[in-house]
């Protein structure tokens, strides 16, 4: 991983990937997204994933959980328990005051988007599990929480929203994702917490795609959802795959794979040559902005923290896919 070059990390455990993981696993065969920064006291990097923690918790080895418990200070990419973070993320995703998606999008795209969201709203009650209903989570509430304000969102965020409004993803709502769960645990255990990124740093790069690129991406996303709806396409990539790779400790498949908070992969679609070029431009833009530049920025902040507090034990919990 890129961190190794900077900090000479040692894997704290290793799980050889054999293609498929069967549970129950031996402790030694569990995933290992923990790296130790050798100093006294030690600090740690832990690769998280943006899926319900209950799906991966049993696969996280004891050494990772102990490292978390013993650390003084826990750092995340963003502080998701801070109401300011949430409101800043929300407003960063909105169109400028007075603008509406209907004014911004080509008419055909707007119409298809509207139709797709109507379909999602209609289907949502049937997608939800008895377990979710038991917890008092209702389809109307969930739809509004995710998509309520869609007409005011910037197209790129609407695209990401549409990607997260699938049956599989809806079924997993209501349980905190692993990174959020760790943040809640850190709070419960009264650990000092912090974040290495500002909301704007995570949000602005996405807003930086130009108009034709965004329309292309939204069009591709809608085409994909329309094929799924028509039954002519199987879910091309699922959160299930991501969970399986994570639980197997298969970092290579996690890196650059597209987790739910990230960006869909258009390159492999069967596209005509000019559209393929646009897809590649978008992909390399995201890699540059969301992976390489972020790594550098985050790496520098980590280094500064470690130098400033040499007697503290840090636990850095960052998305496994962002390194
Ligand atoms: C968007 O960016 C691409 C690649 O940099 C460029 O070819 C295209 O002309 C730009 N489109 C607009 C509308 O600025
Ligand atoms: C959407 O994509 C399809 C297939 O690539 C293309 O034919 C169509 O013109 C696109 N629509 C818009 C509005 O860009
Ligand atoms: C494209 O699809 C092929 C076959 O499904 C797969 O082997 C390859 O890794 C994919 N490439 C990308 C960039 O996703």
From TrEMBL:
Membrane-topology descriptor: Single-pass type I membrane protein
Cofactor(s) annotated in UniProt: Co(2+); Mn(2+)
EC number(s) given by UniProt: 3.4.-.-
Superkingdom to which the source organism belongs: Eukaryota
One GO CC annotation: organelle membrane
Cofactor binding notes: Divalent metal cations. Mn(2+) or Co(2+).
Keywords linked to the UniProt accession: Cell membrane, Glycoprotein, Hydrolase, Membrane, Metal-binding, Metalloprotease, Protease, Signal, Transmembrane, Transmembrane helix, Wnt signaling pathway
Record carries keyword DNA damage: no
Cellular localization per UniProt: Cell membrane; Membrane
Group of enzyme by EC: hydrolase
GO molecular function terms listed in the Swiss-Prot or TrEMBL record: metal ion binding; metalloendopeptidase activity; Wnt-protein binding
Entry-linked InterPro entries: TIKI1/2-like, TraB/PrgY/GumN_fam
Pfam families per record: TraB_PrgY_gumN
Family, similarity comment: Belongs to the TIKI family.
Its job: Metalloprotease that acts as a negative regulator of the Wnt signaling pathway by mediating the cleavage of the N-terminal residues of a subset of Wnt proteins. Following cleavage, Wnt proteins become oxidized and form large disulfide-bond oligomers, leading to their inactivation.
Entry protein name: Metalloprotease TIKI
Provenance organism: Gopherus evgoodei
């Amino acid at each position: 991983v890129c961190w190794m070059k900077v900090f000479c990390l040692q894997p704290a455990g290793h799980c050889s990937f054999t293609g498929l993981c069967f549970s129950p696993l031996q402790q030694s065969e569990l995933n290992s997204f923990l790296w130790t920064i050798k100093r006294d006291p030690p600090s740690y990097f832990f690769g998280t994933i943006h899926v319900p923690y209950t799906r991966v918790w049993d696969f996280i080895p004891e050494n990772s959980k102990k490292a978390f418990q013993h650390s003084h200070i826990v750092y995340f990419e963003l502080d998701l328990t801070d109401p300011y973070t949430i409101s800043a993320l929300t407003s960063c995703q909105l169109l400028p005051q007075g603008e509406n998606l209907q004014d911004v999008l080509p008419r055909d795209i707007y119409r298809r988007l509207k139709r797709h969201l109507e379909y999602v709203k209609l289907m949502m009650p049937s997608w939800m599990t008895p377990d979710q209903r038991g917890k008092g989570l209702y389809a109307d509430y969930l739809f509004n929480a995710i998509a309520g304000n869609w007409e005011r969102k910037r197209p790129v965020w609407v695209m990401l929203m549409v990607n997260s409004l699938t049956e599989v993803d809806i079924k997993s709502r209501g349980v905190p994702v692993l990174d959020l769960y760790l943040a809640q645990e850190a709070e419960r255990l009264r650990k000092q917490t912090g974040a290495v990124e500002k909301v704007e740093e995570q949000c602005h790069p996405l807003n930086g795609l130009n108009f034709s690129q965004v329309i292309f991406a939204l069009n591709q996303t809608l085409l994909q959802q329309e094929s799924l709806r028509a039954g002519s396409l199987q879910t091309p990539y699922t959160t299930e795959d991501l969970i399986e790779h994570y639980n197997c400790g298969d970092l290579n498949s996690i890196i650059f794979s597209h987790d739910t908070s990230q960006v869909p992969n258009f390159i492999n679609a069967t596209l005509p040559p000019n559209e393929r070029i646009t897809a590649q431009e978008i992909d390399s833009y995201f890699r540059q902005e969301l992976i390489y530049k972020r790594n550098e920025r985050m790496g520098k902040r980590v280094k500064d923290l470690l130098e400033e507090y040499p007697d503290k034990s840090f636990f850095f919990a960052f998305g496994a896919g962002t390194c």
